[in-house]
Amino acid sequence: MGKKTEGANPLDRVFGPAALLRFALPTVGTMLFMGLYTVVDTLFIARLVGTDALSAVNIVCPVINLTVGLGTMLATGGSALVAREMGAGNALAARRKFTLLALFAGALGVLIALGGLLFLPSLIRGLGASERLYPYCRDYLAVILLFTPAGLGQVFFQNLLVTAGRPGLGLALTLGSGCANALLDWLFIVPGGMGGAGAARGTGIGYAIPVAAGLWFFARDGGSLRFARPGGGWQAVAESCRNGCSEMVGQLAAAVTTFLFNAAMMARLGEEGVAAITVLIYSQFVLSTLYIGFSMGVAPVISYQYGRGDRSALARTTRLALGAVGLSSLAVFAAALLGGGRIAALFAGEDQAVANLAAEGFSLFAYSFLFSGINLFSSAYFTALSDGRASALLSFLRTFGLLAPAILYLPRVWGRAGIWLAVPLAEGGAFLCSVFCLWRQRRRLEGKEKALSVPR
């Protein structure tokens, strides 16, 4: 009694507007809360340790981008693979491939941690840390690297809980880990006097909570997705990496562009400039979580409908999702444009130079939110369809292909205003490509549906 039947699957139903929003809402809440507790973490560092420590976090951020990118690549690519197998009725194959990917994520996290700690001083210098920022970078990054396996595992399990039809559990775990992170940050920084290392320790323990819960949940004998004997071999790993490579491309590109932003700001405005761009980058993450979460929440539905070959349901889901993302993009743009100054002051505290620079940046940077929602959804959409090439192309354009040249060239023309405008112009160019790819995919699906309806 109480156990789900073997064939029970929350993805196997009709999704109207309300049902789709309800299904995605826990993932939206998860991502929004993740963004908020990331901001709390950064606020503790900025207000309790100092803006130099805030700059140091952004200096070492490329390493964190790499870790998140690898975890998201395995999670999103693996989710598409597992959901497709479930949609095709291959429950055992889905479980075996899921288990293999979970083991691979853990092993990869251990390798990254060992390599990073072994070359820590050279790594920090290579990222462009000044003598003033080096101690802050060392204290923060050394602890974060120790928790790399947990960081990868957190991203992986939170995504696969959605695929298992339990997005609400993912939200609850995120709430719990976020609250623990905030509490531990304060304990380690203020009473403990650990500075940036204390903030990193709180973050790492926050990573470990969803991992422990995920291991327990998927080890139970019940539900549509659980641990089994690993299967699928390197082919399953390679397919997951290929499907999710756009997310990896996005994070690698974010690592490179963060490095370029830091270098441009350090050359023109010193450590205060790095602190200001840090405020914008972290604020961008928080304000983007609304449509990032929605895209992640509907991705298993898209993969499942695609796996079943239900073209009409897939087209309906896509239309509903695009409408929701478009409306949320307008809301996020308005929030960034009207509240940028307040956000800057919240981070900078008494450092008026950093606050003024960040507020100036928001007045131009905010326009990127008009385009980034559709761009992010488009990349997730093609990943869900197992079209890793299109997804990677869109992700590459918005995060590196257009952005890196803009960072390198625009400041020569418009000075520091060119730095703030780099992201809006790159997102606008990527938006045009996203619209074209979505239109082409729609025509392709309509062509297949017409072909299937022709009498034979």
Report on the structure:
The protein has 456 residues and is an all-alpha fold. It has one domain (17-447). It is 85% helix and 0% strand. The longest helix is centred in the middle third of the chain and has 64 residues, at 245-308. It is globular. The N and C termini lie far apart (47 Å). It comes from Bittarella massiliensis.
Key structural traits:
456 residues, mainly alpha, 16 helices, globular, disordered N terminus, disordered C terminus
Put the structure in a nutshell:
With about 450 residues, the protein is mainly α.
Largest sheet: none
The total beta strand count reads 0
User: What oligomeric arrangement do these chains adopt?
Assistant: single chain
Uncertain spans: 1-7, 452-456
Number of helices: 16
Helices, strands, pairings?
Layout: H1 17-49, H2 51-87, H3 91-118, H4 120-126, H5 134-146, H6 148-163, H7 167-189, H8 196-219, H9 233-243, H10 245-308, H11 311-348, H12 352-365, H13 369-384, H14 388-401, H15 403-414, H16 416-453
Transmembrane segments: 20-40, 55-77, 98-120, 140-157, 169-189, 201-219, 252-269, 275-299, 320-344, 364-385, 392-411, 417-439
Membrane topology: Multi-pass membrane protein
Keywords: Cell membrane, Membrane, Transmembrane, Transmembrane helix
